[in-house]
Amino acid sequence: IQLGRRPTSPVVPAIFGLAIVFVVSGLAAPQIAFSAAAAALVVLRQIHPRELYDAIEWPVIVLLGALIPVGAALEATGATAVLTYPILMLEGQVPIWAMMAMLMIVTMLLSDIMNNAATAIIMAPIAIGIATGLGVSVDPFLMAVAVAASSSYLTPIGHQSNLLVMGPGGYRFADYWRMGLPLDILIVIVAVPLILWVWPL
Predict the structure, then answer these.
(1) Suppose 133 and one of 62, 79, 88, 91 were both cysteines; which one would form an S-S bond, judging by CB atoms 3.0 to 4.6 Å apart?
(2) pLDDT of residue 1
């Protein structure tokens, strides 16, 4: 949800501050706490219900809702095994960290053309399939997907922030490659060893 109007009373920051406390303390899940906070703002007449409705990114919600069954279907139909087979064929020929780097690169490329959350939903079952096939922990591979899915720097359509600065900055499509490619490479170089250190195989 994106609300563009600045709060006019201390009620708004107080309610969202309380929601953050509930999330940090583990008393409520983020989606419950912040949904309740938004509902409270409507009840207290801090925002109009129509304003709240218009601020919700419905296309993103529909996209995620549609792709969750796709992710489940990848596992249920065995498509995950087919997609992970080329990488698993490299077992014994390349180290596991290199396979993780390959997974990150594929995820980054996919995230540059579609929503990052949707990318994570699609790539998570593939990451689990690779880890299971290698007989290692799934945690580092899932974290690699999480990091890579949030690294959408190569195109203006990879993230709404990229698109928002394109016009005011006078950027062209190629400008994102010039800055984004070195940044993606740096992320892979730093993230792979760091992930394997924090979440061992």
Answers:
(1) 88
(2) 46
Phi, psi of 108, rounded to the nearest 5 degrees: -60, -45
Q: Is the pLDDT at 41 greater than 60, yes or no?
A: yes
The reply to whether 83 and 112 lie within a common domain is: yes
Cβ neighbours for 13, distance < 8 A, ≥ 6 positions apart: 7
Identify whether residues 110 and 170 lie together within a single domain. Answer: yes
Are 111 and 153 within one domain? yes
Distance of alpha carbon 108 from alpha carbon 184, whole angstroms:
8
Cα 92 from chain centroid? Answer: 31
Tell me: the pLDDT tens digits for 84-111?
Answer: 667 777 766 788 898 899 889 888 888 8
Domain annotation covers residue 157: yes
Residues 28 and 90 in one domain: no
pLDDT in tens, 173-189: 777 888 888 898 999 99
Question: Is residue 1, in this structure, part of any structural domain at all?
Answer: no
